[in-house]
């Protein structure tokens, strides 16, 4: 799960850029960089959301079979710029939560709501994560 979200800022840029360089050469790719970058960003965004959707759909498929199914999910909502107290919203997190809400209800009546937001050190910045208890919807 964490790999789905955490590595998508770095990929598929590297993968597709390497494929383009292999096919057309680095000089040609550099020459068209201003046009390629927005296209790669669009591709990354679409792939990311498709990956989140398929991952959540699979979690739903697996867990809806139980009588009292629950999924505990922790998601990074905000991250700080290194060395500052300024935070930015993690890219696509609102859309990811929207996708989750298609398949699951959010249960905030359990024991952890008081500690649902947590701040921790990740690399050179701080991360603010929120914990959720998910209950599968009866039908999707």
Mean pLDDT across residues: 82
- Please identify the structural class as seen in this structure: alpha+beta
Number-wise, the strands total 5
Rounded to an integer in angstroms, the radius of gyration calculated over CA atoms is 18 Å
What general form does the structure show? flat
Q: Give the helix proportion (percent range).
A: 40-55%
Note the gap between the termini. Answer: 21 Å
Task: Describe what this molecule looks like in 3D.
With 140 residues, this protein is an alpha+beta fold. It contains 5 helices and 5 strands. It has helices spanning 2-6, 13-24, 26-31, 33-63, 93-103, and strands at residues 71-80, 87-89, 104-107, 117-122, 125-136. Strands 1, 2, 3, 4 and 5 form a 5-stranded antiparallel β-sheet that branches. The longest helix has 31 residues, at 33-63. It is flat. The mean pLDDT is 82.
